[in-house]
């Protein structure tokens, strides 16, 4: 049987626009798509690496941009895409905060789970 100490915590955050009528947000999936664009130079390549159709990736990015009110990608047709200045900043900030919260969550969980066994 699994003990509480054997389990792991997984902290996930999102960036949302509280004034937007839609609930689209920058979360783990959008962040992974944007990171793929940064690494591969195109939304199509990023989508393929995630096993996602380009049309779905395009829709997700467009919905997120519309909701946040921030353009995440500069698209250059057949020449690919790249993160905008704001997109890169937001992705970097998202990654930094996610990592710190994950570390804090893991430490807190470990501390609290070990207390159950005294």
Can you put this structure into words, describing what you see?
This protein has 118 residues and is mainly alpha-helical. Helix content is 56%, strand content 5%. It has helices at residues 28-40, 43-49, 54-68, 85-115, and strands spanning 73-75, 81-83. It has a two-stranded antiparallel sheet with strand order 1-2. α1 (28-40) packs across α4. The longest helix has 31 residues, at 85-115. The mean pLDDT is 92.
β content, as a range? Answer: 5-15%
Structural class: mainly alpha
Order of helices and strands: HHHEEH
Residue stretches low in confidence (pLDDT < 50, at least 5 long) are none
Summarize the biggest pleated sheet. Answer: 2 strands, antiparallel
Basic shape? elongated
Strand order of the largest sheet: 1-2
Tally of separate helices:
4
Radius of gyration: 18 Å
- The number of distinct β-strands equals 2
Helix content: 55-70%
Tell me the layout of helices and strands.
Layout: H1 28-40, H2 43-49, H3 54-68, E1 73-75, E2 81-83, H4 85-115
Antiparallel strand pairs: 1-2
Helix pairs in contact: 1-2, 1-4, 2-3
Task: List the main descriptive attributes of the protein structure presented here.
mainly alpha; 2 strands; 56% helix; two-stranded antiparallel sheet; 118 residues
């Amino acid at each position: 049987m699994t003990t509480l100490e054997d389990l792991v915590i997984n902290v996930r955050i999102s960036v949302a626009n509280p004034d937007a009528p839609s609930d689209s947000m920058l979360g783990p999936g959008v962040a992974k798509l944007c990171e793929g664009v940064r690494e591969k130079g195109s939304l199509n390549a990023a989508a393929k690496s995630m096993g996602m159709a380009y049309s779905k990736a395009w829709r997700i990015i467009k919905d997120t941009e519309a909701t946040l009110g921030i353009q995440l990608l500069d698209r250059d047709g057949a020449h690919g895409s790249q993160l905008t200045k704001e997109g890169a900043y937001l992705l970097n900030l998202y990654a930094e905060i996610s990592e710190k919260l994950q570390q804090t969550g893991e430490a807190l969980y470990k501390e609290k789970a070990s207390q159950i066994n005294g």
